Each structure stands twice: as C-alpha cells, then as structure tokens.
Amino acid sequence: MNGAECDNRPMRLLAIETATEACSVALWVDGDVRERFDLAPRRHATVVLPMAGALLAEAGISRRQLDAIAVGRGPGAFTGVRLGVAIAQGIALALDRPVLPVSTLAVLAQGAAAVGLPVLALIDARMGEVYAGAFDLGADGLVLPRGAETVLPPQQVMAPADRFAGVGTGFGAYDDALRTRFGDALVPVGPQTLPRAADLARLAARDFAAGHAVDPLHAQPVYLRDKVALTLAEQGKPSPA
Known about the structure:
Elements: E1 12-17, E2 22-29, E3 32-39, H1 44-59, E4 68-72, H2 78-95, E5 99-102, H3 104-110, E6 119-126, E7 129-137, E8 143-145, E9 150-152, E10 164-167, H4 169-173, H5 175-182, E11 186-190, H6 197-209
Parallel strand pairs: 1-4, 4-5, 6-10, 10-11
Antiparallel strand pairs: 1-2, 2-3, 6-7, 7-8, 7-9
Helix pairs in contact: 3-6
C-alpha cells in the first residue's frame, strides 16, 4: 500500500460515521476539522458520499490527497455499521490508502470529554439492552477505553467511577432505571446524543499518528451481538400456522 508521500504536508483524513440514525462525515486537515451531520434514518446510503464530496470540494482537496479513511466500526445499527465500513473500504481500496476503524462508543464518549470526567457511553441496542463502553480521559483530552465494550441489560451496567459523565441514547431509553441505579454519581451529558464524525476524526488522527491504520480488507464491523431481532415466542406472539 503506497499511502501518502512523505512531503511534510498536513495529515488529511476523511472520517465516516453511520452506525446510528445520524449520518456524518468529517475532514481532518492537520487539526482543523470540518463536518457534515444529518439525522438520516434509512437514508445513509444516499447522503454519505455527497457529504464527503462537499467537504472535499469546500476544502479544495482531492480524494487522492487523503492519507487514510476513518470509520466508526460499531457497535450500532447493523445496517449502518455495515454500510460505513463497506464505504470506507471501497474508498480506501480505490485510493490505495489504509483504514482507521474506531469504536462508535469511543466516538460517542469523545463528545462528552469536555466535562472532564470518566465517561460511560451507552447506545440503545433495542431488545431491552444497551451497547456499553467506559472511557477515561487521556492527557491529550482524547478518550481511552476502560475495559471491553459489551451489550447487556441496563440494570447490569456498572459505574466506571465514583462520578462520571453519561452520554448516549441508552440513557434516553432507560433514563429512570439508570438514574435510580447510579444516583448522584451520574452526570448526564446528552441522553439523546449521537456519535459525530468530527469526534471520530480526532480519535482517528491519534491512531494514525500511532501507526494503527490497517489494510482496508482488515477493517471489520463490530456488532457485539449476533442476534438482531426477537423471535415470535420471545415477543409473546403465536407462530404462524
């Protein structure tokens, strides 16, 4: 893989986040971040590439000038996660560039980093569960994972610290149960907050500088859960005759 030439020019990353009902794309140029963001349920496939094209045109940068493609690898909506990874792979393969897969929970947590506390990021996983990830803040203001991400009932989510910020749709979906469970330890930041590509780009830039980019074919979606729907029996409905 050729990558970008070593010409001391600014690092340029394109970041794609489609793992939730939000669709966003960001362009990182040596610390400067531009973003397009839209709530686009079931429209990700039609809006994500035009967003990317608009950002590149606005910045006067061609695709060939990009150093890598970053993507939210999940967890999240199965279709959105698959779409984002597939688009990132396609662009990266066409340009002979690497991919930077970044946890969507980390992206969500980064949006709450300004609070200055450890962060618990929860995405509503439906079926009575949440995708959960706990994060600390690094000295550079970027989040670092604290343990493995998981999917579980909200009643089983553990507090990451004596006082922490909580962000994500998991808090919106199970607000009463989580407030009762955590009490004053929880500092709500955004119960309806969705991950944004601008935060993805910031995390990806750190990973790129650390040499964590991968071959496009090695970028894989992370679902945390294989099962996507309840059976009729689990829904309490009779089986069809």
